[in-house]
């Protein structure tokens, strides 16, 4: 069940919530996931926080179920323009699979759980608005797969990232073997997966796995701060146009470029009758900032 709690009840979970305490009135606390929408000038930005310190945000039954609940909340909220996915556990983004749970499962239970985990990440990938992963610490195995499901990734330079499954007798099963070779060259993706290599945030930026690598600060929230800056850059733009652009890109990259042009045309035409498109043109003519309302 989803319960509402005041932000003061969770301020001690992470230093970056000192910022959120002045920008958020209420929080959706969904088990080990803390979800809230910012207010004021940041209205339209949603923050999706993993908060399972005991398990280092390992992907077990409870966390995955909570993520699916939050995914559903976000998907239906037309007032959200951009989502930041981060961790409230210091030094950890997500430690991957909960192997203690996994070890107790029968083979068919493992297969079904991993299918559900993949579907959970696909839900994040398919959220209609732009998503940004802020990686402060360890993001290995399923943790990196989760970040790869987001549109944009920001990592602290000292973050640790890797698809380490082959070193544990597994393969990446929540989309890693498919998303990573689409983000970087397949040969490099193969090397990283075959070696179970863990790289830092700076190396991940050089390879193109993350968009930005930032020097960590004393509050251990440099990636979150950079993600918030990016979200604020996205926020002034027309919400429907953002959603159409994301859909056009996500669908088009799976096709030939000629078929992709048709996808682009489809979403362009969806956006044409919107009031926001009219507002964008009118504000340009009148030399003022547009006021988009998402319709």
TrEMBL record:
CDD domains: crotonase-like. SUPFAM superfamilies: ClpP/crotonase (SSF52096). It holds the Pfam family ECH_1. GO terms for molecular function: enoyl-CoA hydratase activity. GO terms for biological process: fatty acid beta-oxidation. GO terms for cellular component: mitochondrion. Keywords: Lyase. InterPro entries: ClpP/crotonase-like_dom_sf (IPR029045), Enoyl-CoA_hyd/isom_CS (IPR018376), Enoyl-CoA_hydra/iso (IPR001753), Enoyl-CoA_hydra_C (IPR014748). Belongs to the enoyl-CoA hydratase/isomerase family. This is Enoyl-CoA hydratase domain-containing protein 2, mitochondrial.
């Amino acid at each position: 069940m989803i319960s509402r709690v005041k932000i003061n009840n969770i301020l001690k979970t992470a230093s970056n919530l000192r910022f959120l305490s002045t920008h958020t009135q209420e929080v959706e606390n969904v088990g080990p996931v803390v979800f809230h929408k910012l207010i004021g000038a940041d209205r339209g930005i949603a923050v999706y926080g993993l908060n399972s310190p005991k398990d280092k945000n390992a992907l077990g039954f409870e966390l995955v179920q909570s993520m699916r609940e939050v995914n559903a909340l976000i998907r239906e909220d037309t007032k959200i323009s951009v989502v930041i996915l981060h961790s409230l556990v210091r030094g950890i983004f997500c430690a991957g699979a909960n192997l203690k749970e996994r070890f107790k499962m029968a083979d068919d239970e493992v297969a079904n759980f991993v299918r559900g985990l993949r579907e959970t990440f696909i839900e994040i990938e398919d959220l209609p608005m732009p998503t940004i992963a802020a990686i402060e610490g360890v993001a290995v195995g399923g943790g990196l797969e989760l970040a790869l499901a987001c549109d944009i990734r920001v990592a602290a330079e000292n973050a640790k990232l890797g698809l380490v499954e082959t070193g544990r007798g597994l393969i990446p099963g929540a989309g890693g073997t498919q998303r990573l070779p689409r983000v970087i060259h397949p040969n490099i993706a193969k090397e990283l997966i075959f070696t179970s290599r863990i790289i830092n945030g700076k190396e991940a930026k050089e390879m193109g796995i993350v968009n930005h690598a930032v020097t960590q600060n004393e509050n251990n929230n440099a990636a979150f701060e950079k993600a918030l800056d990016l979200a604020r850059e996205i926020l002034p733009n027309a919400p429907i146009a953002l959603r159409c652009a994301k859909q056009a890109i996500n669908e088009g990259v799976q096709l030939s470029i000629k078929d992709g042009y048709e996808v682009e045309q489809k979403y362009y035409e969806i956006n044409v009758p919107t009031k926001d498109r009219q507002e964008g043109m009118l504000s340009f003519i009148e030399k003022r900032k547009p006021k988009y309302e998402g319709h």
